[in-house]
Write a structure and sequence with these properties.
Helix content is 0%, strand content 43%. By secondary structure, the chain is mainly β.
Length: 367
């Protein structure tokens, strides 16, 4: 999915690096994380040294080559943000440019071709980027001037340019300005404006655009009856918003309780929210986490596989600053820069060096 960028200069001062024992290198030493992005069966972490490490079925790898521990993305430095798509990933580089890697079907890497790239590849003629987000087959960037550019697959209008034509290069979303945040779901995209309202576009078969219909929209439409929004997150076929009063609202598909059912009515103190394919998690102001929705793989972290569930505490987890959610796993960033993950561990998605499913949070193993 998407993370808003934490602008970090290339670090030249001392960084907390913890060696892993004799013979260890900087590649497998612990460096604190600053943000997370998850999708399908992998997660990427932006680190305090402005590099990125990923684990699981990382884009650009064959299935047999998954990574069960954090692995550096070669040649990527000065990173200010990272976004995880289903089959590709992108990094916002300090200075406002973007590099993407992985599958380039439909032009989702934005370089004007459909040639796959295992290494981070610049997105040409794109600058002044403040934030990036990635969906199933598309990518979007919010620029510092408050406008949005999108590229990749457009069969459901998720690029917002009024057509259903795939675009291998960044394309403006017409009529959209004053954007404060952008979030890509599987086949839809949403933008939060500076006035606290939300616009969405793309697939709408489950009502994920929030306009009161199930009609797909190739251009942005207003989410009905929603204001004072502080944060948005787009999941598989649904969308959620955190309001300035610390409550949350969700709309769209609700086949397995991903909207929280009536449980969101009693949920307060929400400080962050993250949507996966069919489950959602929220960090509260006290640093604890509540999750709801599909739980077949233990992605809600409550020690069970009971599903669906209303907002449920994740036991033993505290001091959380960020969350990210994938297909069937969830990860949390703690205040000390460590990461804990839970749920499906297929392809090493939890980063603990195994492929063992975890029903409760387990530390990511850096060594």
């Amino acid at each position: 999915m998407r993370l808003r960028p934490l602008v970090v200069a290339v670090v030249t001062a001392a960084i907390p690096v913890v060696a892993c024992g004799s013979g260890s290198t900087t590649e497998n030493a612990f460096v604190p994380a600053t943000s997370l992005a998850s999708r399908l069966g992998y997660t990427c972490a932006q680190l305090t040294d402005a590099t990125v490490r990923c684990w699981g079925m990382v884009p650009g790898l064959r299935e047999a080559d998954y990574r069960s521990k954090p692995t550096p993305v070669a040649g990527l430095y000065g990173v200010a943000g990272v976004a995880a798509g289903s089959y590709h990933a992108c990094a916002l580089v300090t200075g406002g440019t973007v590099r993407c890697w992985g599958s380039n079907a439909f032009g989702r890497l934005g370089d004007g071709t459909t040639t796959d790239h295992n290494d981070p590849t610049p997105v040409p003629e794109l600058s002044g980027v403040a934030e990036i987000t990635a969906g199933e087959h598309h990518t979007c960037a919010r620029l510092t001037d408050g406008t949005v550019r999108c590229w990749g697959y457009n069969g459901d209008g998720e690029l917002g340019d009024g057509t259903t034509t795939n675009r291998p290069t960044p394309t403006p979303v017409p009529g959209l300005s004053d954007v404060a945040e952008v979030a890509a779901g599987t086949f839809h995209t949403c933008a939060r404006l500076t006035d606290g309202t939300v616009r969405c576009w793309g697939m709408n078969s489950d009502g994920e655009l929030g306009d009161g219909s199930t009609t797909g929209r190739p251009t942005p439409v207003v989410v009905s009856g929603l204001s004072d929004v502080a944060e948005i997150t787009a999941g598989g076929s649904y969308t959620c918003a955190r309001l300035n009063d610390g409550t949350a609202r969700c709309w769209g598909a609700n086949r397995v309780g991903e909207l929280g059912d009536g449980g969101l009515t009693g949920l307060s103190g929400v400080a962050k929210i993250a949507a996966g394919a069919s489950h959602t998690c929220a960090r509260l102001t006290d640093g604890t986490v509540r999750c709801w929705g599909f739980n077949l793989s233990g992605q809600l972290g409550d020690g069970t596989t009971t599903s669906p569930l209303p907002p449920t505490p994740v036991p033993g987890l505290s001091n959380v600053t960020e969350l990210s959610a994938g297909l069937a796993h969830t990860c949390a960033l703690l205040v000390d820069g460590t990461v804990q993950c839970w749920g499906s561990n297929r392809w090493g998605a939890l980063g603990d060096g195994t492929t063992t499913q975890r029903l409760t949070p387990a530390p990511v193993t850096w060594c």
